[in-house]
């Protein structure tokens, strides 16, 4: 990263967040449903992500795949703005103005983890609302005592029934997921981007807008896949903690994962892996391409 441009880093992040939701939310809905229902001892079971998506489309149409997207748009725009802005500026500070061009893990990892930790406090309530909206779809065979007419209704009913702390259910799982996940994502993204630019330079291929987009797609997509392969079990635990109807159930993600492992094995801990990995590439590629485009348009210097 070259010179940071203050607020511009945060503006660029907003565009990345919007692109992520547009491309990735339908996959996320399928992932959440698989995590909720395929880890339960009884009730609705989906054969795979395709079966889940087909059932949602049959019972609710395309809008069913975008259920809970309103809170996602708001949450992701704000979250992405913060994570990209904090990452950019913290990384520049830790590097002390050094612009060697080579990725520096000592700056990338803490910068990304710090950004992830900060946004987890915003993500937790918005994802709780999103997940509860997603699992109440008409394809659910599990009785739902509270039907939510919209994100605000869901948030208000949650606070009324569980208190203010209820809206932050799954906070510790979200914090760990975001810190570890963002560190993994940016580390892979920066290294893939750097080495691809070196290959182009060695091959004497001139940089064009098209090659930059291609590098953004590959580096962002691979970063997203690496991130979710590392943190998906924490995400499974978070989904269960946030969507359970039992208010007295544990909020410890490791206890949840231990229970899942005993009943469903490693496969249960990675419930939703298919749609998550399929989503991770295009959603994160779209985020990086949008971010890099905004960075260029806003005149932010990069190495």
TrEMBL record:
Solcar repeats: 4-93, 103-195, 211-297
Source domain of life: Eukaryota
Signal peptide location: none
Gene3D superfamilies: Mitochondrial carrier domain (1.50.40.10)
InterPro entries per UniProt: MCP_dom_sf, MCP_transmembrane, Mitochondrial_Carrier
Biological process according to GO: mitochondrial L-ornithine transmembrane transport
Keywords: Membrane, Mitochondrion, Mitochondrion inner membrane, Repeat, Transmembrane, Transmembrane helix, Transport
Coiled coil region boundaries: none
GO cellular component: mitochondrial inner membrane
Membrane topology per record: Multi-pass membrane protein
Family to which this protein belongs: Belongs to the mitochondrial carrier (TC 2.A.29) family.
Protein name: OLC1v1021484C1
Provenance organism: Oldenlandia corymbosa var. corymbosa
Taxonomic lineage: Eukaryota, Viridiplantae, Streptophyta, Embryophyta, Tracheophyta
């Amino acid at each position: 990263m070259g010179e940071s441009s203050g607020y511009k880093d945060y503006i660029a992040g907003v565009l990345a967040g919007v692109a992520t939701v547009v491309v990735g939310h339908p996959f996320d809905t399928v992932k959440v449903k698989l995590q909720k229902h395929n880890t339960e001892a009884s009730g609705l079971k989906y054969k795979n992500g395709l079966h889940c998506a087909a059932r949602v489309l049959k019972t609710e149409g395309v809008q069913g795949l975008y259920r809970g997207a309103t809170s996602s748009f708001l949450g992701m725009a704000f979250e992405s703005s913060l994570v990209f802005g904090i990452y950019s500026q913290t990384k520049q500070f830790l590097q002390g103005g050094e612009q060697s061009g080579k990725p520096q893990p000592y700056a990338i990892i803490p910068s990304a983890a710090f950004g992830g930790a900060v946004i987890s406090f915003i993500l937790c309530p918005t994802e709780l609302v999103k997940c509860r909206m997603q699992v109440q779809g008409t394809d659910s065979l599990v009785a739902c005592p509270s039907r939510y007419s919209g994100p605000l209704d869901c948030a208000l009913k949650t606070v009324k029934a569980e208190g203010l702390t209820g809206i932050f259910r799954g906070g510790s799982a979200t914090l760990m997921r975001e810190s570890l996940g963002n560190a993994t994502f940016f580390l892979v993204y920066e290294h893939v981007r750097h080495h691809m630019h070196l290959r182009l330079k060695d091959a004497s291929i001139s940089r064009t807008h098209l090659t930059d987009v291609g590098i953004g797609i590959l580096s962002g997509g691979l970063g997203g896949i690496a991130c979710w392969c590392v943190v998906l079990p924490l995400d499974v635990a978070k989904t269960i903690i946030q969507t359970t109807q039992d208010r007295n159930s544990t909020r410890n993600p490791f206890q949840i994962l231990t229970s899942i492992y005993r009943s469903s094995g490693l496969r249960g801990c990675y419930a939703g892996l298919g749609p998550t990995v399929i989503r991770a590439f295009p959603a994160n590629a779209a985020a990086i391409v949008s971010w890099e485009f905004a960075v260029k348009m806003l005149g932010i210097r990069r190495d």
